[in-house]
Design goal:
18% helix; alpha+beta; 5 strands; five-stranded antiparallel β-sheet
């Protein structure tokens, strides 16, 4: 299967971007997942992250392979997630 970019939110309010081959079922494996720890009001919430990616001022963590739940993102969001700097 081909990996596709997805945005995931957990029941504990975690927000993650990553790549998944299979998004069926209750859990998915995310490769190169990045956590959005904070996003500014200009992002307009979780769906703004899915449509536009993280805005300037967002806090995005480093990548890791994990398992989470599913939601898709747009191509523009993929580009913004990929270029977001890692904030310590």
């Amino acid at each position: 299967m081909t990996e596709r970019p997805v945005l995931v939110t957990t029941e504990y309010r975690g927000v993650f971007f990553g790549y998944a081959e299979d998004t069926s079922g209750d859990t998915i494996k995310l490769k190169r997942a990045r956590n959005c720890i904070y996003w500014p009001s200009g992002n307009r919430g979780f769906l703004g992250l899915a449509s536009d990616g993280p805005a300037t001022g967002a806090r995005v963590g480093p990548a890791a392979d994990i398992e989470l739940r599913k939601v898709e993102v747009t191509e523009a969001a993929v580009a913004a997630w990929e270029s977001a700097p890692w904030h310590k």
